[in-house]
Design goal:
142 residues; Serine Threonine Protein Phosphatase 5, Tetratricopeptide repeat; 2 domains; 9 helices
């Protein structure tokens, strides 16, 4: 099952505060070139410099997931979700990570939560639909 997320790095970089977004342009290039260690190290340096910036945590979580470190990415998104409980984008992306880890009940709850916060959030609707389809397939196979 493929659950969609908004882990597009140009979106993450655009989403990031403009005060240092240009400095982070190199992160996108590192990610594209598969330089995991360097990309994460650069993001971590910015997190040390701007510890209260949620976009940097978002970017780090997205980067970790991109490089297959979904469990670590989940931890970043859990922190963000607790700190920003009314952000549907964070809820949707956390749901995607739970789905990738096979934790479909948690994923469903998060997609539903995202839709309660923003009823027209198409990405969360699509992801919830995929989870519901999987549930139907599972139930009919029993």
């Amino acid at each position: 099952m493929k659950v969609k997320c908004i882990f597009l790095f140009f979106v993450c970089l655009t989403y990031t505060s403009f005060s240092f977004a240009s400095d982070l342009d190199g992160v996108s290039e590192l990610i594209k070139n598969g330089k995991e260690t360097e990309a994460i190290a650069r993001i971590n340096r910015y997190i040390q410099k701007y510890p209260s910036d949620p976009e940097l945590k978002f970017l780090r979580g997205a980067t970790l997931d991109h490089f297959g470190k979904t469990r670590e990415a989940k931890e970043d998104f859990l922190i963000l979700s607790n700190k920003y409980p009314k952000d549907p984008i964070i809820k949707n992306n956390l749901g995607v990570l739970y789905a990738k880890l096979g934790e479909y009940r948690k994923a469903r709850f998060l997609f539903e939560s995202a839709l309660k916060l923003k009823t027209d959030y198409q990405e969360a609707k699509n992801n919830l639909s995929l989870i519901q389809k999987q549930d139907r397939v599972y139930l009919t196979s029993k």
